[in-house]
Amino acid sequence: MTSRPRKAIRSSGWKTDFFIGFPDGLLLFLFLTQLLHGKELTVQSFYNINLTFLLIATIIIAIAMYRANKGSEDDGLLTTGEKEKLENLDINNQTIDHIASEMQKDEQKWQQVLVDERVTLADYSLWHALRSAFFTGIFFMAGGLVPMAPYFMDENFNSASSYSIILCVVAITWFAFTKSSLTKSKIIPILARNIFIGALVLFASYALSLAF
């Protein structure tokens, strides 16, 4: 089977890390805080759950970004080891070749997506992968702290919830304007998309809190 030198997704440095980490952290913890604040939890338990989840989620997204930047020598292609496993399953060569062909077509489509989105592929760099993982984790944590901040300042969680939503709307609006400025894109589609996703997050947290 064919393979290619290890490549990694390389877009725009800290900007890409910011675009990924900050909104994901904000929306995830908007969901979690809205889901938990009405539950019968002590104040300290609420804090402990959110902070523990923030730490774990930050580590997970940092690892995910490291792996994305790390790349692979055979991304999207059928490796020799995978071919041998298929042969051990008594799958005929024609079927295996068809699988390999379809995987290669999918890889070519993915390459075109990268071109359309103006995301470049660069040779793998350990330093870049580690740096991207670190900054994505930092931005993710910063985003997660936005909806949590009002709960640290006001232990009346009902009022803190309202302030949290307002603060998140302000943060989402700021993020949309910042992203628009950095990418030279139109502000309205970015803002509308982020507000819509935020509204879905609120609806989902409300629906789940009623269900459970």
From TrEMBL:
Molecular function via GO: manganese ion transmembrane transporter activity
A Pfam family matched in the record: VIT1
UniProt subcellular location: Endomembrane system
Membrane topology: Multi-pass membrane protein
Keywords: Membrane, Transmembrane, Transmembrane helix
Cellular component, GO annotation: endomembrane system
Stored InterPro entries: Ccc1_fam (IPR008217)
A GO biological-process term: intracellular manganese ion homeostasis
Keyword Iron-sulfur: no
Origin: domain of life: Bacteria
Transmembrane region(s): 48-66, 133-153, 159-178, 190-211
Protein name: VIT family protein
Organism in which the protein naturally occurs: Chitinophaga caeni
Taxonomic path: Bacteria, Pseudomonadati, Bacteroidota, Chitinophagia, Chitinophagales
